[in-house]
């Protein structure tokens, strides 16, 4: 998996370009946000009022 190759170690193998680092941050942040809202939506549908 590509993300484990970038995050491994103390950042010595991180992409040298700032734009790529920002893109990875935005991608990980947006994916985690989508997963959070998806789980919250499922929980909202499962739990009765």
Count of helical segments? 2
Radius of gyration: 16 Å
Helix content: over 70%
Estimate the strand proportion. under 5%
List keywords for this structure.
transmembrane helix; single chain; mainly alpha; 49 residues; 2 helices
What does this protein look like?
- By secondary structure, the protein is mainly alpha-helical.
- It has a domain at 17-48.
- Helix content is 71%, strand content 0%.
- The chain is elongated, with a radius of gyration of 16 Å.
- The relative contact order is 0.09.
- The model has no long low-confidence stretch (mean pLDDT 82).
Give a quick summary of the entry.
The protein is an all-alpha fold. It is built from two helices and no strands.
Question: Layout of helices and strands, plus pairs?
Answer:
Elements: H1 2-7, H2 18-46
Keywords: Membrane, Transmembrane, Transmembrane helix
Protein name: DUF2474 domain-containing protein
Transmembrane segments: 22-47
């Amino acid at each position: 998996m590509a993300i484990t190759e970038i995050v491994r170690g103390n950042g010595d193998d991180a992409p040298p370009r700032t734009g790529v680092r920002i893109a990875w941050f935005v991608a990980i942040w947006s994916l985690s946000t989508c997963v959070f809202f998806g789980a919250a939506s499922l929980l909202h549908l499962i739990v009765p009022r």
